[in-house]
UniProtKB/TrEMBL annotation:
Pfam families: ComZ. InterPro entries: ComZ (IPR024558). It comes from Halalkalibacter krulwichiae. It comes from the Bacteria. This is ComZ.
Length: 64
């Protein structure tokens, strides 16, 4: 992540949806603690960052 402020916003979004993801994994019989979830959170943050950058570049290319 290049922007610490954006990274914090992404982490807040991820944490908001974490209980839903944990519930899904629990229903599948996959037990993970927060230490186990950390690599997945990092992956999710990377995806969110790339999606943000893609949207940002498209917005610059196609001004309203």
């Amino acid at each position: 992540m290049n922007n610490p402020e954006m990274n914090m916003k992404f982490m807040q979004i991820a944490m908001k949806h974490l209980p839903e993801g944990k519930k899904f994994l629990d229903a599948k019989g996959i037990e993970l603690n927060m230490e186990d979830l950390q690599p997945m959170l990092e992956l999710l943050l990377n995806v969110m960052d790339e999606a943000y950058e893609l949207g940002k570049s498209e917005a610059v290319e196609q001004p309203k």
